[in-house]
Design goal:
The protein is mostly helical. It has helices spanning 2-18, 23-66, 73-107, 111-138, 151-157, 161-196, 201-237.
Length: 238
């Protein structure tokens, strides 16, 4: 934190003394031109790219599934990996849709971008549902549909203990990565705010996200601990 503060203060002092205080405005003007040009094309291009890649991987996974005898774990594992890549691509499309929606609303009024996002989300959901349907064909015990409000809860409950443990390990890895990312994002945005006078809103938002992450994790640990205590007391009583 001390190093980041010194770097930011040094950049701010340099901007004043050397006479490049208009650097931030110049950068902003250039970005405005870029975003204005890209706003109408961001969602169609990224959706076509990543959904196209996802559909190609899905068809490849479906072809592998048709050759599966129901027992070969190598084939089922390959299908799972390809479907996971499909889900990753759909997530990237979702994030980019929201990003370019914000760009469109800010620079172009947003009506065209809103229509593009709705089309993209429909295609995204259709592809995700195909993935879910294929997984359910491989694992008939799985339950849920992406069109349901409580899909994730139903899906998790239908997973066996090994799958739930794998989900837990992956979730904890994501939790640690998010903590690390929040710290460095805060440092970077703080330095930028000191050097270019962009204000404290951006680093403050990162702190809010970090707080939500930490508080929700700790509260869930407390809730699960209490539930285990009640279960233990009930077993002892019986």
């Amino acid at each position: 934190l001390l190093l980041s503060g010194l770097v930011g203060a040094g950049l701010g002092l340099l901007a004043v003394t050397v006479g490049i205080s208009g650097l931030a405005e110049s950068i902003q003007t250039g970005l405005d031109r870029i975003w204005t040009a890209l706003a109408p094309w961001g969602i169609p291009v990224t959706s076509l790219l990543f959904l196209g890649l996802g559909m190609g991987l899905y068809k490849s996974a479906h072809t592998l599934f048709l050759s599966w005898d129901g027992e070969n774990e190598a084939i089922s594992g390959a299908v799972d990996r390809r479907l996971n890549w499909v889900l990753l691509f759909t997530f990237l499309v979702n994030v980019l849709d929201f990003f370019f929606l914000a760009v469109g609303l800010f620079y172009n009024g947003g009506l065209l971008v809103v229509a593009e996002m709705l089309v993209s989300l429909v295609l995204l959901l259709l592809l995700q549902q195909r993935v879910v349907d294929l997984v359910r064909r491989m694992n008939p015990e799985k339950r849920g549909s992406v069109y349901e409000a409580k899909f994730q809860k139903k899906w998790l409950e239908s997973c066996d203990e090994a799958e739930q443990a794998q989900i837990g390990r992956a979730a904890f890895k994501a939790y640690k990565t998010a903590n690390f990312a929040c710290i460095w994002l805060w440092v970077i945005l703080l330095v930028l705010s000191l050097a270019f006078d962009i204000g404290l809103l951006a680093p403050s938002v990162v702190l809010v996200i970090w707080a939500v992450l930490q508080v929700s994790y700790i509260l869930e640990c407390i809730r699960m601990s209490r539930r285990e205590e009640r279960t233990g007391i009930e077993e002892e009583t019986e």
